[in-house]
């Protein structure tokens, strides 16, 4: 009797554990929020805040942290190259809700997809062909993806909450690539780019955003080191010589109109890997509510009653009757 009772209790515990595991793996997302997320993120255009590698390994966000880490991401970028870079515009081409994650594919994703009719071959007298045309083997997929991972299941989240989680990789608010790029760099670099200055330690892309593409470029060799001098300006103005080795600025020399030469070769900014935006860089900007008032028109005071103009009463004309 005791053995049967023990077996019965063990079965109940096992079933409860399985049911609790099923509850954890099932999504708790409400149906309305699910519809809102699908409508918002499918085919949505965004600006990029960090580099995505090409290949089948994308990015993962969990508890606000991005993986792979900087070292692994550098290795993937060196092997496969970047899919998108900060400031680029991309399209979310696929959005999936899975058990414990949200899956976002950009620019077609990392795997090339084919249509169903591209798997059909039609042959006549030994000659065959594909109705939709032969797939191009050279046109490799250049997209990537990011997964937002949760514990056990996807919680009930609104669109704005999901956008906040995606802030380190996607920019939904910027209106131009420059604005999106500035939000992805450290504050010191951001201020220098706004002032069109070059800091020692910047990379090539930062210099181009700050000063534009160099009108003149000189390639030289110092021992075993190849370098480039990017020249900005012409006399009688200040002339900047920006020396670039690899992807890093190692020296900035400025020849002023007065004849003074200013040389900076000490590192002024430390990047330490691919540019990744952090949530601490986000500025809380006040969002203005939509209005129909003209620019400069003041809003009415709270509690005031809007003034409405009442048309003057129309005095009826007495009927004089038909003419005699």
Short description:
The chain is built from 7 helices and 16 strands. It has helices at 2-25, 31-41, 70-80, 159-165, 177-182, 187-194, 204-211, and strands at 44-48, 52-53, 59-62, 65-67, 82-84, 89-97, 101-106, 122-124, 127-129, 144-149, 170-171, 216-222, 225-232, 239-245, 248-255, 261-264. The strands form 4 sheets. The protein has a 7-stranded mixed beta sheet. A 5-stranded antiparallel beta sheet has the order 12-13-14-15-16, with no helix packed on it. Strands 2-5 form a two-stranded antiparallel ribbon.
Number of E strands: 16
Rg over CA atoms? 31 Å
The tally of helices reads 7
- Strands in their spatial order, largest beta sheet: 4-3-10-7-6-1-11
Q: Characterize the main sheet.
A: 7 strands, mixed
The residue-averaged pLDDT reads 78
Helical amount:
10-25%
Q: N-to-C terminal Cα separation, in Å?
A: 120 Å
What portion of residues belong to β-strands?
15-25%
Shape: globular
Q: From N to C, what is the helix and strand string?
A: HHEEEEHEEEEEEHEHHHEEEEE
The unreliable regions are: 17-26, 283-287, 304-309, 320-324
